[in-house]
């Protein structure tokens, strides 16, 4: 019944009774030097339930089920229920317990062999046990299936099912209220608007505390814990998606100083993040102090202080594989973070500091578990706080597992699915805007500048071929929109189409000069300047276009607002045809955001794509370096 209560995730309602019964079971087993029973199901279930609660139950209890050769007895092979319990128990082994490793292999092999000979319900039970053992699963998410499969096996199961259904509705209502509470906080922080490049996954962030703190009475703790989790993701995106090394140096220094005045030189998006981090940490510390009488601000700050230098080190290490142009930034980082200790050279740090250890810290697990410890408020003393501050094995082990899981790619399935879905969404938009030639040209240009056009190569080629065929049939376009003609000319020439430069004759006067009224068309002049870089030998008209547009754009610079001036300057210094889109996509997003309704969708795809490409590049560098 205790096992059933746990699998239905309603054991929290009977915690005192369960603890008393298990303690009694443990005391009786100690007095009698273990149970002499030969019921595999009973012994395995008792062993698992006691070990789950931290009781030191020896694996020797399974010796009764072995023969003289030390193997499990052959007659156990038909005890399906006992084998399932044995397999469940084997997942609570500790290092060196060969008996339980043997039990896992033995029970798994036999259960797998039985699958084809069982009825549908039994086969489903066995399959569920093998794929989702209780110790490595979340009962809250499997309770429904458990009730469906086990209903009626014991007379009291129907009563527990009714209670579990009622409890589920209450917990569901609580979870929904918590999600709304966190979502309101997230909206008030304004980070979703200030950091468009960063993830905005409120439900995903909340799922972590919901899965870890299942007891309904931990409602406020779940909400508060979701806040630092969300900020970990935001910091991760700042370091690996958007921030420059110089900006990250300033950001790391500001967090290390933990002073609102330190954000003065930060870009706006970093100011927003720092303010959110500062206010949230102090707010949570105050709530913990009110609830438990202990101010944890030093411990919470320490976890935040550690995660930023760890992220910086990883980012810097990867950058140094590619370039040595950021030595000044490294020096600033070393000065700001190591000045409190002995000043050392970055290269010495890189030599003696293991990247794997740094990666473990950068996982954010330390931040989450330290916050959890204080939010729960159990056993807070100077001794336990010192232990937590010293990164005990229980924290570093979890962080290591998470880092390895992520590095092995097991944590990327969801990301890949979202990426594929976003590609489909953008493709749908591209095909829809194809009905409007100008908008489609603009979108293709945007895809190329974001370096994500390779996802839509067939669609782009089909559209450009159609544009070229129509221009041949009509003997060129008779349009007088400089931006549209210039953009079409450039996109077609880039793909190798033989588009004559004569299309620009429409914009010349009788004297063969570009018309004076074009001088006010900033957007058109920028497109003309871009197009002029695809000239071939002898095309004087494009050379003239380059000089004309460059002169006028340069003259406009002093009379434009900051954003327009930045766009013009970028066009003059870095025309697309003589640039590498992968390295300028970030600036393009920043400058062009929101100009068209679909740009935000492309930005999201570009951010996701950047992460995947970055991961691939890093793996290739390491592969070559090895």
Please, could you describe this protein's structure?
- The protein is an all-alpha fold.
- It has three domains: about 1-150, Glycosyltransferase (Alpha/alpha barrel); about 175-410, Farnesyl Diphosphate Synthase (Orthogonal Bundle); about 425-625, Terpene synthase, N-terminal domain (Glycosyltransferase, Alpha/alpha barrel).
- Helix content is about 70%, strand content about 0%.
- It has 29 helices and no strands.
- It has helices at about 1-5, 15-30, 40-50, 80-90, 100-115, 120-130, 140-150, 155-190, 190-195, 200-210, 220-240, 245-255, 270-290, 295-320, 325-340, 345-350, 355-360, 365-375, 380-390, 395-405, 415-435, 435-450, 455-475, 480-495, 520-530, 540-555, 560-575, 580-590, 600-625.
- Helix 18 (about 365-375) packs across helix 20 (about 395-405) and helix 22 crosses helix 24 (about 480-495).
- The longest helix is centred in the first third of the chain and has 33 residues, at about 155-190.
- It is elongated and about 110 Å long.
- The two termini are about 55 Å apart.
- The relative contact order is 0.05.
Write a brief structural summary.
One of its GO terms (molecular function) is magnesium ion binding. Helix content is 68%, strand content 0%. With 626 residues, the chain is mainly alpha-helical.
Question: What spatial form do the alpha-carbon principal axes imply?
Answer: elongated
Give Rg in angstroms.
Answer: 32 Å
What is the number of helices? Answer: 29
Poorly predicted residue ranges: 320-355
Strand content: under 5%
CATH superfamily of the largest domain: Farnesyl Diphosphate Synthase
CATH class call of the largest domain: Mainly Alpha
The structural class is: mainly alpha
Main pleated sheet:
none
How many domain regions?
Answer: 3
User: In angstroms, what separates the terminal alpha carbons?
Assistant: 55 Å
Q: Which fold name fills CATH's third level, the topology of the largest domain?
A: Farnesyl Diphosphate Synthase
Helix content: 55-70%
List the secondary-structure elements in sequence, H or E.
Answer: HHHHHHHHHHHHHHHHHHHHHHHHHHHHH
Provide the residue-averaged pLDDT. 83
Number of strands: 0
In CATH, the architecture of the largest domain is Orthogonal Bundle
Cofactor: Mg(2+)
Keywords: Lyase, Magnesium, Metal-binding
GO molecular function: magnesium ion binding; terpene synthase activity
Domain Terpene synthase metal-binding: 187-311, 357-416
């Amino acid at each position: 019944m205790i096992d059933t209560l746990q699998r239905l995730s309603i054991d929290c309602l009977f915690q005192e009774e369960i603890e008393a019964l298990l303690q009694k079971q443990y005391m009786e087993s100690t007095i009698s030097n273990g149970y002499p029973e030969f019921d595999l199901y009973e012994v395995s279930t008792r062993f698992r339930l006691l070990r789950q609660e931290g009781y030191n139950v020896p694996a020797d209890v399974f010796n009764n089920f072995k023969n003289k050769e030390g193997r499990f007895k052959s007659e156990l092979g038909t005890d399906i229920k006992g084998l399932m319990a044995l397999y469940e128990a084997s997942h609570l082994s500790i290092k060196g317990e060969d008996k339980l490793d043997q039990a896992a292999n033995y029970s798994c092999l036999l259960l797998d062999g039985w699958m084809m000979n069982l009825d549908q319900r039994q086969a489903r039970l066995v399959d569920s046990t093998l794929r989702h053992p209780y110790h490595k699963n979340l009962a809250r998410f499997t309770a429904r299936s458990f009730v469906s499969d086990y209903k009626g096996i014991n007379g009291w199961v129907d009563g527990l099912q009714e209670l579990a259904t009622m409890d589920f509705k209450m917990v569901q209502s609580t979870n929904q209220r918590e999600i709304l509470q966190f979502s309101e906080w997230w909206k008030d922080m304004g980070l979703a608007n200030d950091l468009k490049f960063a993830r905005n996954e409120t439900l995903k962030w909340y799922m972590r505390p919901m899965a870890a703190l299942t007891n309904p009475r931990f409602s406020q703790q779940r909400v508060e814990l979701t806040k630092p989790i969300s900020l970990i993701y935001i910091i991760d995106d700042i370091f690996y998606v958007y921030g420059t090394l110089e900006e990250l140096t300033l950001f790391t220094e500001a967090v290390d100083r933990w002073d609102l005045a330190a954000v003065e030189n930060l870009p706006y998006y970093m100011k927003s993040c720092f303010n959110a981090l500062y206010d949230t940490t102090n707010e949570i510390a105050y709530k913990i102090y009110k609830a438990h009488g202990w101010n944890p601000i030093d411990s919470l700050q320490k976890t935040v202080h550690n995660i930023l230098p760890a992220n910086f080190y990883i980012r810097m290490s990867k950058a140094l594989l590619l370039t040595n142009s950021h030595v000044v930034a490294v020096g600033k980082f070393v000065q700001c973070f190591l000045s409190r200790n002995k000043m050392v050279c970055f290269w010495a740090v890189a030599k003696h500091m293991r990247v794997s250890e740094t990666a473990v810290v950068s996982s954010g697990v330390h931040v989450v578990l330290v916050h959890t410890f204080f939010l729960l408020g159990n056993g807070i003393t100077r001794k336990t706080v010192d232990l937590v501050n010293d990164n005990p094995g229980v924290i570093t082990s979890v962080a290591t597992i998470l880092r390895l899981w992520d590095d092995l790619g097991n944590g990327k399935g969801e990301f890949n699915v979202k990426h594929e879905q976003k590609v489909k969404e953008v493709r749908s938009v591209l095909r829809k805007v194809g009905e409007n030639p100008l908008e489609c040209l603009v979108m293709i240009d945007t895809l190329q500048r974001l370096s994500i056009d390779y996802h839509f190569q067939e669609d782009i080629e089909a559209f450009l071929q159609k544009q070229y065929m129509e221009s041949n049939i009509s003997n060129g376009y008779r349009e007088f929109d400089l931006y549209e003609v210039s953009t079409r000319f450039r996109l077609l020439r880039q793909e190798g189409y033989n588009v004559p430069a004569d299309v620009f004759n429409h914009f010349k006067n009788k004297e063969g000069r570009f018309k004076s009224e074009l001088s006010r068309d900033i957007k058109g002049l920028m497109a003309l300047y871009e197009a002029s870089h695809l000239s071939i030998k002898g095309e004087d008209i494009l050379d003239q276009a380059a000089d004309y547009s460059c002169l006028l754009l340069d003259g406009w610079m002093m009379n434009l607002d900051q954003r327009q001036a930045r766009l013009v300057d970028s066009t003059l210094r870095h025309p697309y045809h003589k640039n590498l889109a992968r390295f300028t996509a970030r600036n393009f997003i920043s400058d062009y955001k929101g100009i068209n309704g679909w740009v935000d969708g492309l930005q999201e795809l570009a951010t996701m794509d950047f992460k995947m490409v970055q991961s691939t590049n890093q793996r290739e560098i390491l592969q070559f370096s090895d």
